[in-house]
Amino acid sequence: MKTEDSGTKRFRHTKRPGFWLGFIDFFTAGLFFLLYMPFGGLQKELEAVLGHRVMPYWKAYLLGIPTLFLYPLVWMARIAEELKKKAIGLGIDGPYTSWRHMFGWNTLGILLFGPAVATHRFFDTLNKIEARLNEDEARPNEDKARRNRDAEAS
Fold it and tell me: Largest Cα–Cα distance in the chain?
């Protein structure tokens, strides 16, 4: 992917509708994210943002079967906590997703809306991080372009 300076961004999906993704995933019993994670590019984007490999969702989903789907929830809550730390490290204003937020809304939230609220905050944080990383990546290119213009003007 190219930088913003050339018209495209490293992270193209900075406006994911988290509430609706969570809503759809709830009605498909998690099957939606089995497809969305690899084919929607979310798996690779999470790995790029977090700076390390993340267990594929399909493995977490399969481990969820014998654990009454507690494992995928803990898996997502761990990623949520990492995203929170990343957002704070980048100086992004909250509210953030977190382990407690993800787990709480999914277990104690109102049926149907709890998971959608948790997923909304998760994607809101991820969208903000990706937008900031796009901005930070574009800045060196802007500085380089400015130096080139200054050199040509001299």
Answer: 69
Query: Tokens 């149907």 map to which residue?
Result: 112
DSSP state of 41: S
Chain position carrying tokens 């995203």: 83
**Residue range 4-15, pLDDT digits in tens:** 344 557 887 888
Among all chains, which residue has been given the structure tokens 């009605």?
Answer: 27
> Distance (Å, rounded) from C-alpha 7 to C-alpha 2?
8
Query: What's the pLDDT at 137?
Result: 84
Domain count within the chain: 1
Q: Classify residue 76: in a domain, yes or no.
A: yes
Tens-place pLDDT, residues 99-128: 999 999 999 988 778 999 999 999 999 999
**pTM (2 d.p.):** 0.82
Residue 108, domain member (yes or no): yes
Residues 6+ apart with CB under 8 A from 56: 37, 38, 43
Q: Which domain holds residue 52?
A: 21-136
Q: Is residue 115 part of a domain?
A: yes
Residue 102 lies in a domain: yes
